[in-house]
Amino acid sequence: xxxxxxxxxxxxxxxxxRWSPRSFAEKTPSKDSLHRMLEAASWAASSYNEQPxxxxxxxxxxxxxxxxxxxxxxxFNQAWAKNAPVLIIIAAKxxxxxxxxxxxxxxxxxxxxxxxxxxxxVEEDIYIHQMAGFSPDKAKELLDIPEGYRAITVAAIGYExxxxxxxxxxxxxxxxxxxxxxxxxISFIGNWGNVY
Amino acid sequence: xxxxxxxxxxxxxxxxxRWSPRSFAEKTPSKDSLHRMLEAASWAASSYNEQPxxxxxxxxxxxxxxxxxxxxxxxFNQAWAKNAPVLIIIAAKxxxxxxxxxxxxxxxxxxxxxxxxxxxxVEEDIYIHQMAGFSPDKAKELLDIPEGYRAITVAAIGYExxxxxxxxxxxxxxxxxxxxxxxxxISFIGNWGNVY
Lengths: 196, 196
Fold this sequence. Notes:
homodimer, 196 residues, NADH Oxidase, 4-stranded antiparallel sheet, 8 helices
């Protein structure tokens, strides 16, 4: 795996600037900012335009909304995510609305929606860190997620903070270079393994 | 479902401009453009930074690469996708490299990568239309996709074309307004159903 791969290609700045911090500042994103991020998510492509994505926000200082989402996280993630002012559960609708058959691309489409969300966040100087480490069952129970939907990820959201606030074992990864595979490793032409 | 929902929120122009056309111009995107889109895809977030995405390109005029990807499409998609100068198979690595366990978020992460790809495409005046309607088995066989990877979507890629080139039944959807659910339908705070 190459370090800071492919840097010679000039791409959209926000796509390159997006990263997943674990340290966040105390400042809470405004409702307008969060609405713009959700709006960006809503414009993602989806199979049959199903728009299978649903979002449940937990915001510090807004009732018990934050604590309910936080409780669903595993301990490893709770240790750093407690600094994030906003947590969001991403849930997917399992079946297509037009014929009630299984939507095998619901997760794929939710991933696209959250990529849009992340890029709109960068426009607002906000960064998000998505997590698979949480209990979907606990989330379902605590947040009344109905049958037919399942929680698939949780995102911590906020402005960048000081890495010194993190425990040592998290601080190291916070300051590490971002690594990506080279294009030769991930893209081919006409046949697997034929470098484009 | 509201038509052209949420238009009062000002978000990143490329996120809003992205759409999935079925008519494409004859002009083929350059290798540099395609590399920038692949590069954009490569900077998506992924669980454990696995980067489970792989891409196999089929480009008209470059050997039999195009025909091989095209053959995996179902008839409904072949009818319009034949106008696209580039087709790409998106494949996902099934297991994590660090411990060989199932990567349950591989599709989610591939969806994010293709959202990045789509937004870099808009920067280049290029549009993509992703399809679930193809045979993953045929793609696996024709393109030598190895064990441990599975084809999950195909994307048609090119510059916008004239909708008149499409058969009538496709032309109608090509010219229809884009529809999105309102934010009240997809986002809640603290509990499912609590409008934010």
